[in-house]
Write a structure and sequence with these properties.
313 residues, disordered N terminus, mainly beta, 2 helices, 11-stranded parallel sheet, 9-stranded parallel sheet
């Protein structure tokens, strides 16, 4: 019996394995759902544009205390006449640029002091925007304009109603009106080592000496070329005009003007671009041209070449 029973058991086990539990049905596939569009991406915030650097430092009106215009804040843009009261000093540092943009009778009205000293490699630039530059009108005796190593361009007159005036080592170009320094200087005036090109010159005389020395005068402004000379003297004392170069001169260079007791002009040792005294005589207006004038302009001796301390043509 044992041998028959064992095979039967094995066959039963095999049948049960073949007929085991039926496999579970796979879960039904869900119906497709409508695909939702992704939410719109918000627009990127634009990067702020960099704030443009300021075009310059705007200035105007009355300066009430001692003030320095520094190179780091240049250029300075004048929106209305800069007024410097008595006892106040405006100092302009080397390398500064100043431009007149606004309205006003002058770029600067000086009753105190303006001190603008540049250097050979850092000149101060003053652009008048075709306005007059300086006036000391109605100022007291200590009003001072002191300029050295400046570039002064594009204006009407350089200065009027002078009290104390120093102009040295500067370049002055494109001025369409003459400067009147005959109204009451309270100290000697010094105009030295400058280059004048396309400008209209100076009216001098009245109170203190005016020294015009070691300058180059090259080409008068054509608007007034036949109306005004480079330099003329209205009243005593005599104007001292020495060691200058006068080149490309049309019309009169030096002139005496009567009516106020003119005391003449000392004009020796200048360079005229010629040694022909007839040509030089034609550039000078004095008693030889109008017997009502008080004196003659003595210009001899003349220099045969520019003075070495004057700017070169």
């Amino acid at each position: 019996m044992k041998p028959i029973l064992l095979p039967i058991l094995v066959i039963g086990v095999l049948l049960l394995g073949a007929c085991g539990t039926p496999p579970a049905e796979a879960p039904p596939t869900p119906p497709p759902t409508e695909e939702l569009a992704p939410p719109p991406t918000p627009p990127e915030e634009p990067e702020p544009s960099p704030t443009p650097a300021a075009a310059g430092t705007e200035v105007g009106g009355i300066i009430t205390s001692a003030t320095i215009w520094a190179e780091k804040d240049s250029p300075y843009l004048i929106t209305s006449t800069i007024q410097v009261p008595a006892g106040v000093t405006l100092t302009i540092e080397p390398g500064v640029s100043v431009t007149m943009l606004g309205s006003g009778a002058y770029m600067f009205l000086i009753h105190g002091t303006i001190f603008a000293h540049g250097t050979t490699d850092k000149r101060i630039t003053l652009d008048g925007g075709m306005h007059p530059f300086f006036s000391c009108e109605n100022a007291g005796p200590n009003a001072t304009v002191d300029l050295d190593y400046c570039i002064i361009k594009n204006g009407a007159s350089l200065i009027n109603f002078v009290k104390s005036f120093y102009l040295r080592h500067s370049e002055i170009t494109n001025l369409v009106e003459y400067s009147d320094i005959s109204f009451g200087p309270t100290k000697d005036v010094y105009i030295e080592y400058n280059r004048f090109t396309n400008v209209c010159g100076f009216s001098c005389g009245g109170g203190f000496n005016v020294y015009i020395r070691y300058n180059l005068f090259d080409t008068k402004n054509q608007a007034l070329v036949n109306t005004y000379p480079w330099i003329w003297n209205k009243a005593s004392p005599a104007t001292i005009v020495k060691y200058n170069s006068f080149i490309n001169t049309t019309g009169i260079a030096l002139m005496l003007q009567g009516g106020r007791g003119s005391d003449g002009m000392i004009a020796t040792e200048n360079y005229w671009g010629t040694q022909d005294t007839a040509v030089i005589d034609a550039m000078i207006y004095d008693k030889n041209d109008d017997i009502s004038l008080s004196s003659y302009i003595d210009y001899l001796p003349i220099l045969t070449s520019p003075h070495p301390s004057a700017p070169t043509p």
